[in-house]
Write a structure and sequence with these properties.
The complex is a heterodimer. Chain A is α+β, with helices and mostly antiparallel strands. Helices cover 27% and strands 31% of the residues of chain A. Chain B contains four helices and eleven strands, in the order αβαβββββββββαβα. An eleven-stranded mixed sheet of chain B has the order 1-2-3-4-5-6-7-8-9-11-10, sandwiched between helices. Chain B is globular and about 60 Å long. The chains are: A alpha+beta, B alpha/beta.
Chain lengths: 314, 284
C-alpha cells in the first residue's frame, strides 16, 4: 500500500510545496518508508535544474550500505569535472545534505540522453530529475520530515505530484523512492501506486532499446515505458493509453510534464483514486483526506473509472 | 445411507423470490424469521427516541473517538444524530447495531457505515471505498458519488447512491438492494450471491462476473457481460417492484423502468456437490 497525490493549478501559481506536503502527510498511514515530491516551480526557463544524489540516506530503516562522506565529495568532484568537459556551466549550486545536491546549469541541448549517460556513468551518482521546471526531491521518512529537511514548503509553482511509500517490492532507499524521472526527457516525472507483474519482461525489452533503469522498483518501469513511447513520437496521453494494455498488474499512476498532469487507472480499477476537478484546480489522491487538506470545505469528488486516462494542462 | 437428493422443500425466502437454489444433503438452511422478536435486538443496544436530536462536530476527533461519542449519545437516548465536519475521515459510523437516524453533513472516507444493522443514514456528501460493507439491515443514502466496493457483502437493507459509484459495486453481496442513480464501474455485482442491484446509468465491463444468483437491473449501456451473466426477461412484477423501490429511494421517479435490462446468473458455473469429503472418497 502506498499513497499518491497530485494537484495542478490552471492559470495561476500557488504554494505547491506546502500544499503537496499537506496532501502527502494526510496519506502517511499508507506508508512512510520514504516520501517524494516532484515540484514544478516557477522559473525563468533558461537553465536546467539538476537534482542528483551522490549517495544514499543510511539513517534508521534504510537498506543502504554506510559510506564515508569523503566518498560523496569525490563523486561530486567527478560530476563537476564531467560537466565542465561537456561544456555545462554550473551557475548555482546547493548541497542540502551531504548526499543530495541541486545544480542550476547553463547548457544548450535538446537531447539529455548523452548528458545523463555520462553523469550516471560515475559510480554512485544518480540524477533524480532534470528539467527547466521540474525538481524531484525524495528521501526516507514521512512527508513532513522530507519537506522540513529540504525546505520545500516555500516552493511556488503550478503543479506537483508526490508519493508516500510503503516499501514492498524493493529496498528502503532513495533510489527506490518515487517520483521517478522520465529519463531522458526533460521535466517528466511519475508516481505510482500498485504492483506491475510484467516488470522483468518489459524491462528486458526496454533495456535492449537503450533505456536505463536505476532501481529494481517496478514503478520505475512506468516512467521508462512512457518515456520510450514519447521518444518514438507518441504524446503523453497516447503513451499513457498504451500503458493500460502494455503494463500488467494493478496500478494507478500520475505523470507530470512541464505544462501538464495526467492520471491513468488500470482496467481492474483495483487501486484507489479520488479526484476533484474545477476550472482552476485539479486535486487527486489515493484518499479523500488528501484532497481535504487543500480543500477543507465540502466539494464534489469522484472515483475515475477503470481504464481511464485523463490529462490536464496548466 | 440416506438419499441426499430428495430434499426439496422450499423455504420462505425462496417462495418470496429472494433466492432460487435448493441446497440438499446435510446442509442446514437457516433464514431470518421476522416472527422472532429477539432477532430485532442485540445485546448492548439502546432504546432511542427519534425525536430526540443532537449535533456532533467531529472535526477535531479521530474516527474511534467519533464512533465512541455516537455510541455515547445513543446510550443517552438520542435517536437522531447530525454529524458535522466528517471531512473524509475513514471508518465513521461503523458497527451501529441500533435503530438510529444518522445524518452526515459532509463526505466520508473509506469503510463508512461498515458492519451496521438497523440505522437509517443520510450522507450529504461523498463516500470512499467499501461504504456500508456487510450491512445487515437499515437504509443508507448517499447524496453524491461513492468509491469502489460499494455495498460489498451486504446481507440486507437498502443502499442508495444518487451519484456514480466505482468498481466492484455489490461484490459478494448476499441480500438487500443497492440502487445507483448514476453510472457504475467495472465488475459490478462480481460474485454476488443474492439480492438486487439497480443501476439507472451506464455500467462498466464484466457486469455480474461469476454471479451465483441475484438480479441486476441496468437502465443505461453495459460495457460487457461478465462470465455467466446473462439477460433475462423483465416481467411486469419486476417493473412494479422497480417503480416502488425507486420511489422509496427518491431517485429516478420518472425513469422508464420498462426499458431496463435484467441480468441474472446463467448458472453454468455452478458446480455444487453436496458430499462431505469422506463421502466423496466413498463415492469414488
Amino acid at each position: 500500500m502506498c499513497g499518491i497525490a497530485g494537484l495542478i493549478h490552471r492559470g495561476k501559481s500557488s504554494n505547491v510545496g506546502s500544499e503537496l506536503q499537506g496532501m502527502l502527510q494526510a496519506l502517511k498511514h499508507r506508508g512512510e518508508d520514504s516520501t517524494g515530491y516532484a515540484l514544478y516551480g516557477d522559473t525563468d526557463g533558461k537553465n536546467f535544474i539538476m537534482r542528483f544524489k551522490v549517495g544514499e540516506n543510511v539513517g534508521e530503516g534504510s537498506s543502504s550500505v554506510m559510506e564515508d562522506v569523503s566518498v560523496y565529495d569525490e563523486r561530486k568532484n567527478i560530476v563537476d569535472q564531467t560537466l565542465a568537459e561537456m561544456g555545462a556551466k554550473v551557475v548555482k549550486e546547493e548541497r542540502t545534505l551531504p548526499y543530495s545536491l541541486r545544480y542550476e546549469i547553463e547548457y544548450n541541448t535538446k537531447d539529455l540522453l548523452d548528458f545523463s549517460q555520462r553523469i550516471e556513468s560515475i559510480p554512485g551518482v544518480e540524477i533524480l530529475s532534470m528539467g527547466k521546471s521540474l525538481e524531484v526531491i525524495k528521501d526516507l521518512g514521512n512527508a513532513k520530515m522530507v519537506c522540513d529537511r529540504y525546505s520545500l514548503d516555500k516552493v511556488v509553482g503550478t503543479h506537483a505530484i508526490g508519493h508516500a511509500r510503503m516499501a514492498t517490492e524493493s529496498g528502503v532507499d532513495i533510489k527506490s523512492a518515487h517520483p521517478f524521472w522520465g529519463y531522458p526527457f526533460s521535466d517528466v516525472s511519475v508516481v505510482h501506486n500498485g504492483q506491475l507483474t510484467n516488470y522483468w519482461n518489459n524491462r528486458r525489452v526496454l533495456e535492449n532499446k537503450g533505456m536505463r533503469f536505476m532501481s529494481e522498483c517496478d514503478s520505475e518501469l512506468i516512467a521508462v515505458y512512457i518515456a520510450e513511447k514519447m521518444r518514438h513520437g507518441a504524446t503523453l496521453e497516447e503513451g499513457m493509453k498504451e500503458s493500460l494494455t502494455g503494463l500488467d498488474g494493478v496500478f494507478t499512476y500520475f505523470v507530470a510534464t512541464k505544462d501538464s498532469l495526467g492520471m491513468a487507472k488500470d482496467t481492474m480499477a483495483a487501486k484507489p483514486l479520488v479526484l476533484y476537478e474545477s476550472d482552476d484546480l485539479v486535486a487527486m489522491g489515493s484518499e479523500e483526506i488528501a484532497i481535504r487538506s487543500v480543500l477543507p470545505h465540502e466539494i464534489d469528488t469522484y472515483d475515475p473509472f477503470d481504464g481511464e486516462v485523463k490529462v490536464w494542462q496548466i | 445411507m440416506a438419499n441426499l437428493k430428495t430434499v426439496s422443500k422450499k423455504s420462505k425466502a425462496q417462495s418470496m423470490g429472494m433466492h432460487t437454489e435448493v441446497l440438499t444433503g446435510r446442509t442446514q438452511q437457516k433464514f431470518f424469521n421476522p416472527d422472532e422478536a429477539e432477532n430485532f435486538y442485540y445485546f448492548g443496544t439502546y432504546d432511542v427516541d427519534f425525536n430526540k436530536r443532537t449535533e456532533l462536530d467531529v472535526k477535531e476527533m479521530t474516527a474511534p473517538e467519533a464512533n465512541k461519542e455516537i455510541d455515547n449519545l445513543m446510550s443517552q437516548g438520542y435517536g437522531t444524530i447530525v454529524i458535522k465536519n466528517p471531512q473524509g475521515k475513514h471508518s465513521l459510523g461503523v458497527g451501529i447495531l441500533n435503530k438510529l437516524n444518522l445524518i452526515f453533513e459532509g463526505s466520508l472516507g473509506y469503510f463508512g457505515m461498515g458492519s451496521c444493522d438497523g440505522p437509517i443514514v443520510r450522507i450529504n456528501g461523498r463516500v470512499g471505498w467499501s461504504c456500508a460493507e456487510n450491512l445487515m439491515a437499515g437504509k443508507v443514502v448517499i447524496e453524491k458519488n461513492a468509491g469502489s466496493c460499494f455495498g460489498a457483502a451486504i446481507r440486507g437493507g437498502d443502499l442508495i447512491c444518487k451519484g456514480s459509484v466505482g468498481a466492484r459495486t455489490g461484490i459478494d453481496m448476499k441480500g438487500g438492494t443497492i440502487i445507483i442513480g448514476g453510472d457504475a464501474g467495472a465488475f459490478t455485482g462480481f460474485m454476488m450471491q443474492r439480492g438486487r442491484i439497480i443501476i439507472l446509468g451506464d455500467v462498466g465491463i464484466n457486469l455480474g462476473d461469476s454471479m451465483y444468483d441475484g438480479t441486476i437491473f441496468v437502465g443505461g449501456e453495459i460495457g460487457s457481460y461478465g462470465s455467466d451473466a446473462v439477460d433475462s426477461e423483465l416481467t411486469s412484477s419486476d417493473q412494479d417492484w422497480l417503480k416502488r423501490k425507486l420511489k422509496v429511494a427518491e431517485i429516478g421517479e420518472n425513469f422508464d423502468v420498462s426499458k431496463m435490462k435484467k441480468i441474472v446468473a446463467g448458472k453454468k458455473l455452478w458446480n455444487y456437490d453436496n458430499l462431505e469429503p469422506t463421502e466423496k472418497k466413498g463415492a469414488i
